[in-house]
């Protein structure tokens, strides 16, 4: 499951009132950090392939995702009400799943991270806990790039620690090795980088998105040039949508898949999963990025990469489908891959799955639903799936094996 957020009223400027847009940009550019040298270590957890850290506001500790793809920090509606934040402006806010809602923009007087104070931090409030995946992750919000830009962040994925400082020279020597690449900070501070696909540079259009649990996704900003669209080939495609954004699930869509070499900062993964949605964002997410230590530096607009793990070979949906819980608690097929064994055996988008390899998926407690959302509905080492579905009012059993496109 992919969790992404992109807040881009700037990209929707023509549909926003000019006064609202100006006020929003004024709020986005606010903020500062305490003066004086500091070097702090911040422990983090990996939850659903995302970096989750603790922040403190007015003496209370909250859990936030570190989301470089979000220009502004996002607070749950409950948290915003508790802090009694005053709205500066209300504008449409979009997410990476293609949804948009009106949200309030505000400033948080002080955000404390590991004893360092950030002042007048821009934020929006949103009902993020309406999305089941956010509730399962016990999240209070997302930390955005407009706050991150005030310091340097060095990620150590061997120890699950972030080193935060305002002086790159004082970072530990072990974190300063690697290859630096430049990024475009954009007007919203979200870093755009250049990578290579099949030996061809993409240009600085790839969003370095730590709020995405996916690999490389090419979308509308990459394919705006017709020659790129004409050159793109794919191995297979899926129908449905397994992505979740700030405001909910994406609409039913077609996702194209391919396995190609990806190169970043001199490192190449030969067989890597690439997805393409014509209407989707252009991002590289944590499925790939977690295999590197890296330093994010908005002072000189660079990211320094050092590999810590060999990037695993990419896999298109191994058994050819994804699932979600609907509002009634039924586990249904939310995405099905063309040519997969699942499709050949007759599984279709919307089919209700009642069990997989003997694991009951009906009438589950919230805790058990969350376990499936965060860890999957079946053992990752499984070589085949015995599935029971409800179809046309009846019960049907079938066995699904690995799909040929991954052999």
Molecular structure report:
The chain has 407 residues and is mostly beta strands. The chain has three domains: 2-170, Cathepsin D, subunit A, domain 1 (Beta Barrel), CATH 2.40.70.10; 186-291, Acid Proteases (Cathepsin D, subunit A, domain 1); 321-406, PDZ domain (Pdz3 Domain, Roll). Helix content is 14%, strand content 42%. It has nine helices and 33 strands. The protein has a 15-stranded mixed beta sheet that branches. Strands 2, 4, 5, 6, 7, 8, 9, 10 and 11 form a nine-stranded mixed beta sheet that branches. Strand 23 (253-264) and strand 24 form a beta hairpin. Residues 1-16 have low confidence and may be disordered.
Topology:
Blueprint: E1 2-3, H1 18-28, E2 32-33, E3 39-43, E4 45-47, E5 50-57, E6 60-66, E7 73-76, H2 77-83, E8 89-94, E9 100-113, E10 116-126, H3 132-136, E11 141-143, H4 145-148, E12 152-156, E13 161-165, H5 173-176, E14 179-182, E15 192-193, E16 196-197, E17 200-201, E18 206-208, E19 216-218, H6 226-231, E20 236-240, E21 243-245, E22 248-249, E23 253-264, E24 267-276, E25 283-284, H7 286-289, E26 292-297, E27 302-307, E28 321-325, E29 331-337, H8 341-344, E30 352-356, E31 359-360, H9 366-375, E32 385-391, E33 394-400
Parallel strand pairs: 1-21, 6-11, 7-10, 18-25, 19-24
Antiparallel strand pairs: 2-10, 3-13, 4-5, 5-6, 7-11, 8-9, 9-10, 12-13, 12-26, 14-27, 15-18, 16-17, 16-23, 19-25, 20-23, 20-29, 21-22, 23-24, 26-27, 28-29, 29-30, 30-31, 30-32, 32-33
């Amino acid at each position: 499951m992919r969790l992404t957020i992109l807040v881009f009223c700037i990209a929707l400027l023509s549909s926003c009132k000019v006064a609202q847009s100006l006020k929003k940009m004024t709020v986005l550019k606010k903020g500062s950090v305490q003066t004086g040298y500091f070097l702090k270590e911040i422990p983090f957890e990996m939850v659903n392939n995302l970096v989750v850290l603790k922040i403190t506001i007015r003496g209370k500790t909250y859990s936030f995702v570190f989301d470089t793809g979000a220009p502004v920090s996002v607070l749950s509606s409950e948290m915003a009400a508790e802090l009694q934040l005053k709205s500066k402006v209300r504008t449409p806010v979009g997410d990476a799943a293609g949804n948009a809602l009106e949200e309030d923009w505000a400033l948080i007087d002080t955000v404390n991270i590991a004893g360092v104070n950030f002042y007048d931090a821009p934020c929006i409030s949103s009902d993020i806990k309406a999305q089941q995946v956010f509730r399962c992750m016990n999240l209070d919000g997302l930390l955005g790039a407009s706050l991150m830009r005030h310091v340097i962040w060095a990620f150590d994925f061997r120890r699950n620690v972030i080193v935060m400082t305002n002086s790159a020279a004082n970072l530990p020597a072990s974190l300063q090795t690697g290859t630096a690449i430049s990024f475009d900070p954009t007007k919203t501070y979200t870093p755009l980088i250049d990578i290579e696909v099949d030996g061809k540079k993409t240009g600085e259009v790839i969003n370095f998105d730590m709020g995405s649990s996916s690999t490389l996704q090419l979308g509308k900003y990459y394919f705006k040039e017709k020659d790129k669209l004409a050159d793109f080939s794919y191995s297979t495609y899926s129908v449905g949508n397994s992505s979740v954004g700030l405001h909910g699930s994406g609409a039913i869509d077609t996702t194209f898949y391919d396995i190609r070499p990806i190169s970043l900062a001199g490192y190449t993964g030969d067989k890597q999963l690439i997805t393409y949605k014509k209407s989707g964002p252009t991002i590289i997410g944590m499925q790939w990025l977690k295999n590197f230590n890296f330093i994010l530096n908005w002072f000189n607009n660079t990211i320094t990469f050092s590999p810590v793990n060999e990037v695993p070979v990419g896999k298109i949906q191994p058994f050819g489908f994804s699932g979600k819980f609907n509002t009634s608690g039924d586990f249904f097929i939310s995405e099905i891959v063309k040519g997969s064994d699942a499709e050949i055996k007759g599984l279709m988008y919307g089919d209700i799955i009642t069990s997989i390899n003997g694991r009951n998926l009906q009438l589950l407690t919230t805790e058990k639903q969350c376990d499936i959302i965060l860890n999957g509905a079946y053992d990752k080492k499984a070589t085949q799936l015995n599935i029971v579905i409800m179809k046309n009012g009846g019960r049907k059993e079938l066995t699904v094996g690995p799909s040929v496109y991954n052999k």
